[in-house]
Amino acid sequence: MPSPPEIVxxxxxxxxGRAQVWSSQERADIELLRGLVDIExxxxxxxxxxxxxxxxxxxxxxxxxxxxxxxxxxxxxxxxRHIVLLGHxxxxxxxxxxxxxDGTLWGRGAVDAKGPLATFVAAASAAASAAALAGAGLNxxxxxxxxxxxxxxxxxxxxxxxxxxxxxxxVIGEPSGWDAVCLGYRxxxxxxxxxxxxxxxxxxxxxxVAELAIQFWNDLLTELDAWNREATNx
Length: 234
Hints:
234 residues, alpha/beta, Aminopeptidase, 2 domains, two-stranded antiparallel ribbon, 6 helices, 15% strand
């Protein structure tokens, strides 16, 4: 793996009017994200990034859990409430050199979705550290999931999480904005439709196979539109 880029600790004067000073913990959090983004993790080839994230979580006090899907899963805290912080560690193809410029970290997956994933790890470990400093245990169990296979059909890692006992809360890290909680997100549905029809002359009466297929598609769109409207208003 190439040498990591240097962490920039000064923001340009025209943006802040003064140098940006990072605390040691902030530098560690930036390094966590930089290291994660620097490791290529295309869907189906996430093992190096998963190993890095598991090691990073372990060093921050997480208990690392087994994942049949091959995801990075770590939990911290022993409270009665269980909160799952679910992100994905795989990315789409395309290499973007990792750099930090004007206070922004650039690289493949920095936004979708290694940034939210690294934020989950940093936030959970910070909450546990604050609770320990206050002389009290963390009053919740926080489980961070770096799911594999999200960018492909099937979402292997998320599908595994769906088999767990339902947590009290689940926050999903996707690039839907940082200043508010998004309550709904577009998904995808993949299906194979097979149409069988008796052989007939194209000039004969009755609907052709192509016409029936088009009608099915239009009916499906109408159903989905009605379902989405109902779900949005409920």
